[in-house]
Amino acid sequence: MSDVMIRVPAEVRDQLAAVAEARGTSLRALMQDIAAQTLTPEQIGERADRTRAVLAERFGHYVSDEESAEMRRKMREAAAAHRAAPAETESSP
C-alpha cells in the first residue's frame, strides 16, 4: 500500500481527526471509509441507469432526461437547505 500526502487547512485536519477519534478509528481508516463511500461520476451514472431500468421494468415508468434533471435540481436544493439549516440555528438568538 502506498501513502499519499494530502494538504488541507488545519481546521479540516482537526475536524477529521476528531471524527476519527469519536469513531474509535485512525485517520487513515476514516479516509479509507470516506473513499469507499464516495461514488465516482461513472458509478453515479451506472446507478442512475440501473434505477431507470428498474423503474421501467417493474413500474412501467420511463424517466425522461427532463425528469432526471428536475430531480437533480431538487436534490441539490434540499442538500443546500440542509447544510444551511445548522448555520441558521447557530446564528439565531
Question: How is this structure best described in words?
Answer:
With 93 residues, the protein is mostly helical. Helix content is 76%, strand content 0%. The protein has helices spanning 10-23, 27-37, 41-59, 65-91.
Short summary:
This protein has helices at 10-23, 27-37, 41-59, 65-91. It is an all-alpha fold.
Find the structural class using helix and strand composition: mainly alpha
The largest β sheet comes out as: none
Oligomeric category = single chain
Uncertain stretches of 5 or more adjacent residues: none
User: Which percent range describes the beta-strand content?
Assistant: under 5%
Proportion in helices: over 70%
Radius of gyration: 19 Å
Give the number of helices.
4
Distance between the termini: 50 Å
Instruction: Note the overall shape.
Output: extended
Mean pLDDT: 90
Order of helices and strands: HHHH
Secondary structure tally: strands: 0
Structural descriptors:
93 residues; mainly alpha; 76% helix; extended
Map the helices and strands.
Blueprint: H1 10-23, H2 27-37, H3 41-59, H4 65-91
